[in-house]
Amino acid sequence: MPDPMEGPARTRLVALVVLLAVAIPLTIVAVLGSSGGDEGEEEASLRVERSPDLPELRVFLDPDVNTPERTGGRPSVLVECLDEAGEVVARADEAFPFTDTDQETLDPHVHMPINPARINEVVRCRVRPADPPLEGPVV
Fold it and tell me: For the chain, is the Cβ count within 10 Å smaller at the N or the C terminus?
């Protein structure tokens, strides 16, 4: 009598096992890789650009986070720009919400004067207090 696990039945079973062995880890990686989306959204809400003409950084906020509610209604915030070690390179009190938009051509922003000798040390800036925090990289 032939073994029931020979021929096409065995081939189907091996194919199913291989498919499951590949599909399950890929599904786990996809699910874990898509978590933490909130962090990316927060980084995207604040961005920092070096001015091409002046020794300053421009700290931009997305309009949807440039609201008094974000800072508990405070009329001013502390903008700090930090180096790789987390040391503050520049700091300034700024009115909040930010109002400079260059005649509505840019997102709300502030201009942060920086010592020209240290401008390239800055890797990120933050706005404090803000809940949730507003912080972003120099792009």
Answer: N
